[in-house]
Amino acid sequence: MTAARRCDVLVIGSGPAGQKAAIQAVKAGRTVVLIEHERAVGGACVHRGTIPSKTLRESAAQATRLARDAAIWGVPPRAGIEVSSLMARLDQVVSAHAHYMGRQIDRNGIERHHGRARFLSPDTIEMITVAGARSSFTADVIVVATGSRPRNPPEIPIDHENVLDSDSILSMLYLPASLTVLGGGVIASEYASIFAALGVKVTMIDRADRPLKFMDGELVAKFVEAFHRAGGTYIGEQAIGGVTFDGVSKVLTTLSDGRVVSSDKMLVALGRAANVDDLNLGAAGLAANARGLLAVDEHCRTANPRVYAVGDVVGPPSLAATAMEQGRRAARHALGLGEGAGSETIPIGIYTIPEMASVGLSEDEAKKRLGSALVGRARFDEVARGQISGITDGLLKLVADGTGKKLLGVHIVGEGATELVHVGQMALLGQMDVDTFVENIFNFPTLAEAYRVAALDLVQKR
Amino acid sequence: MSTQEPAAPLAGPRSQENPSPSSTHADPGERDVLRRRVAERLGTGTIVLPLLPQVANQVLALTSQPTVDALQLSNLIHRDPALAGQVLRIANSPAYMPSMPIVSLQQAVARLGMETVTEIVLAASLQSGTFKVPGYEGPLKRLWRHGLASGLFAKEIARLLRSNVESAFLCGLLHAVGKPALLQVVADAQRDRHRERGTVGPVPDEVLHQLLAEFHTGVGLRIATSWALPQPVVNAIAFYAAFEAAAANRREAAVACLADLFASDFDQPRPSFEPDLASQPVVGELNLYPQDLAQLLAKRATVARTVESMTL
Q: What is the residue range of B176's domain?
């Protein structure tokens, strides 16, 4: 092996977090090396997570719309369908996105390598290629953005045939008649609602009394209602006593209360495990914490001051948008640049059916912090565009301080929520009053009009 | 179902899998005549996939036992790719009207019930029972073993890649499904040629290998289309030997390609297999690092045991 090459910043992983960290560093005039263990850039977000699941979701949403409008078009949706046909555009979407990201990295002059990285010392990284060749780099700053993979609880026999994880479920050949989903987080909720919309009988099982505990309860109630309408079942407050495949055709799940749930397939979505196993963290003076994650401070800095960690490898919220911001902020902090606005204005988007989105404080958080809060609501069925588009099960909530003036948070459930939330995000960033929504004009008919309706509701409560 | 045609003529399979270990010399002129005859037959004839007759016997014996269960039946069908394909085709035919496409044997047994699947197996066996390839029993058996080993290796590769193993098994099992069907076509062409010339003898191994390599993908695709196999399996058949050209299901095609390489080494072990493996393009395609390959290589003994136990 030749002598270690030097660079200013070395980034491990080219997912959303790593890519933004690398671009931020190179824009600050630093030499940057990016090591990606996969052949293509983009990380799990592009190849196994966000983009593939959203492609499937788009097909499911279309199926939902088709089923709703079947009487109009006289074409009922097909009863059974191959998963691959639902993912028909996936290869092009993934390839186009990875190509775009690769070009962006190259255009910015980031030196890109394909290989697995591991620490040799606190400032030295060794890279091994697929062919087994080794080389090493030293860097002033090292950003770990190695992402995560589905967590496989040892007590659940994931075989990628009958008991699947969120990676292998995307390569299923056919839609099963029934699916048990273990978990109540983002991935579990997204897939549960997607498969329910596709006509699969879905049973979601979790320890919590409701899914998505970190989201506004009113939004989640709407989501669960829609899930039940699609034929899904949520079983809460249950531990898993055991999971077995009957050897022929059924996965049997024994619950803590003794019930047994039978299904064709199972999706295990009980969290994700950080990709730290190959990093040889000990050589950098680091170790994964009890949850298998890299612990960081508010600047995403680890216990080794030259090593930062961003994205899924540091744990929740494990959202692509948040990861990007972590990457950007970590690079800026490491290089002594200002980090900019706070993290409360980072929106959360959950691609369930219907979508959910949130930015700023929730009602509970606002009450906890300020002692009181006022809330304005707009149901999508009160908005003309909601009626026109058949999106009537949505809800938009504005959270304000106790006077009902200062906007603190926006929470939305319904199709288009992940786009719609950005209006509220800009209002929060601009520190606008709730009255801004009342005093200004929105296009008609639009779902954004719900902001005005919710603001009017809030004003009446002052 | 639409079948994506390769952009360019498919190269022969990368595998060293040979239908027969012995070799006889081929007359170049006769080889060309036989090649032309095979091409003519493929241009006009109907392809019928041969079945191992023993499987039909096994099914009959199995189903006559009062204690037989669905798992045993499913396992038995799994031993024979041709039979598995026939079961899937018939299970999806209007006669059985499945509510959704049936693409796996497990699904077939679960959805249709053991009795119906048994009927399908027997019907498939009877329809193809007369379709033997006298004089080529050895090559045929080796082809089935290769398919089975490919399916089992594909499962291990998929598991390592966190992909669905059921899909991978079918892709591996059926990636070269055209070869057994082609064997019959070649044998028929040779028989006609012998009749014309008043000669006897099997097709020389070298010629047989060349013909199978040249024509099996096209035959496999015809079978895949007629059986309405799932698109990932169709694309694995079409592109396993040229996965770089696959516009869709490139990973499935690459998994089938690597499984084919492992199965070829299983057929005829070569000392250079392990050292050469890391430099194979498909290893780079699937992003398998040295420790990943070591994991796969460690599975060879398990796969070998399974193949032996499942070979009739």
A: 137-310
Quick check: A96 contacting B, CB < 8 Å? Answer: no
- Give the pLDDT score at A321: 83
Task: Calculate ∠ Cα B170-B172-B175, nearest 5°.
Answer: 95
Is the domain covering A5-48+89-150+273-344 a CATH 1.10.1240.10 domain? no
For residue A387, give how far its alpha carbon lies from the nearest alpha carbon of chain B (Å).
34
A35 touching chain B per CB within 8 A = no
Q: How far is A131 from chain B (nearest CA, A)?
A: 6
CATH fold for domain A163-270: FAD/NAD(P)-binding domain (3.50.50)
Judged by CB atoms closer than 8 Å, whether chains meet at B165 and A177 is answered as no
Average pLDDT over residues A172-178: 81
Is A131 an interface residue toward B (CB < 8 Å)?
yes
pLDDT at B141 over 90: no
pLDDT tens-digit readout, A212-259 = 999 999 999 999 999 999 999 999 999 999 999 876 668 999 999 999
Domain end marker among B128, B154, B176: B128
Same topology, domains A5-48+89-150+273-344 and A163-270? Answer is yes
Contact A79 B99 (CB under 8 A): yes
User: Does the structure show a pLDDT above 90 at A277?
Assistant: yes
Single pTM value for the model: 0.79
Chain B residues with beta carbon closer than 8 angstroms to that of A84: 230-232, 248-249
User: Do B288 and A161 count as a contact with CB atoms less than 8 A apart?
Assistant: no
Size of chain B, expressed as the number of residues it contains: 312
pLDDT (mean) for B229-248: 90
Kindly report the length of chain A. Answer: 462
Contacts of B290 in chain A (CB under 8 A): 128, 132
Nearest partner of A47 among A16, A71, A78, judged by Cα: A16
DSSP B116-184: HHHHHHHHHHHHHTT---TT-HHHHHHHHHHHHHHHHHHHHHHHHTT--HHHHHHHHHHTTTHHHHHHH
- Take residue B209 and report the two structure tokens written for it: 């290998």
Confidence (pLDDT) at A201: 93
User: Is residue B90 assigned to a domain?
Assistant: yes
What pLDDT is attached to residue B308? 74
From chain B, pick out residues whose CB is under 8 angstroms from the CB of A88.
248
What's B273's domain CATH number?
Answer: 1.10.3210.10
| Cβ–Cβ under 8 Å, residues A252 and A243 | yes
ipTM, two decimals, is: 0.75
Dihedral angle computed from the Cα positions of residues B216, B221, B222 and B224, in that order, rounded to the nearest 10 degrees: 120
* Domain contains B5: no
CATH superfamily of A354-460: FAD/NAD-linked reductase, C-terminal dimerisation domain (3.30.390.30)
Whole-number Å distance between alpha carbons of B234 and A334: 51
More confident residue, A296 or B96: A296
Nearest residue of chain B to residue A250 (CA atoms): B110
> Chain B residues with CB-CB distance to A under 8 A?
69-71, 74, 98-104, 106-107, 109-110, 155, 158-159, 162-167, 170, 230-233, 247-252, 278-279, 283-285, 287-290
A90 to chain B: closest CA residue: B248
